[in-house]
Design a protein that fits this description.
Helix content of chain A: under 10%
Oligomer: heterodimer
Helix content of chain B: under 10%
Largest sheet of chain A: 7 strands, mixed
Number of helices of chain A: 0
Structural class of chain A: mainly beta
Number of helices of chain B: 0
Number of strands of chain A: 11
Radius of gyration of chain A: 13 Å
Shape of chain B: globular
Amino acid sequence: EVQLVESGGGLVQPGGSLRLSCAASGFTFSIYWMHWVRQAPGKGPVWVSRINSDGRSTSYAESVKGRFTISRDNAKNTLYLQMNSLRAEDTAVYYCARDPSIVLVDDYFDYWGQGTVVTVSS
Amino acid sequence: TVMTQSPATLSVSPGGRATLSCTASQSVSSTLAWYQQKPGQAPRLLIYGASSRATGIPARFSGSGSGTEFTLTISSLQSEDFAVYYCQQYDNWPPTFGGGTKVEIK
């Protein structure tokens, strides 16, 4: 069974940093593209970032570019999102999600974690 | 690409038929997915490629459309189908979601 379990969320002041983790199990993590998607309260999901299977190719939404860094450790089956210079508008539930493709990225999401809440407030 | 869903809320009786619409601001070919989200849960993939059901999704869920106009139909609503539904395009970068349609019990 595919499982994705996020952790690392919490309350942080504007300008602060957080590192989210996503532990994967039940599939061969090292061959899949992975994504982070966030969802503000009462809003639709918003794609944040993606990373290819070996970690060498990354992409970001314009709203987080230069502030967030996605990475992965295939030996630990774990995906990360380092978030710096956080703003109030970054407040959301952050989900890690698997891309169904193991060759070219598809950019839709066949499995999601349960999410971790990030609140940016003073 | 802006994705617009209508209606915002749809009231349907159990056993009834629900038709949800999703419009893209530019063509997305058939690269469209639908997700279901229940309160406190993550979205769940229902449909990809505009009309292909994801693994384990019941046949009462069907998707259609191409280009800019898409439809998700739930043929006979069960109690577990009352939720929020999102469409998402993945033809144009970045991938984008609609604002959702809430299907509620009439």
